[in-house]
Amino acid sequence: MERINIEKTNKLKNTLKSLTHDLKTPINNIIGFSDLLKDLLSDCENEDTANFIKIIKIEAEHANKMIDRLSSYNQKTETNFTDIDAIKIKEILEISRKEHSAVVI
Q: What pLDDT score does 98 carry?
C-alpha cells in the first residue's frame, strides 16, 4: 500500500512539474510580446490600446507568479503528498488571487 502511495505521489509531482514547466514558456512569451507591443505603440494616442496591453502584461505576470509558487512548493515537498499538501496548494492559489485582486489597473 505504501509503495502505491509513493508511486501516485511521484506521478502527481511529475505531472505538476511538467505542467508548470509547459505553462512558463507561453506565459513568458505573452509578457515579452506585451512589452514589445507597448514599445511599438508608444506613440499611439489610443488610451484603450495602451490599457489593454497593460492588462495583458499584468494578467500574464500574475499567472507567472502562481506558476512559480506552485513549482517552488512542489520542489520543497517531501516524497508523499498528503491532504495537508492539497490544502497548502489551495492556500497558495488563494493568496495569489487576493494579491491579484488588490492590483488596480
A: 75
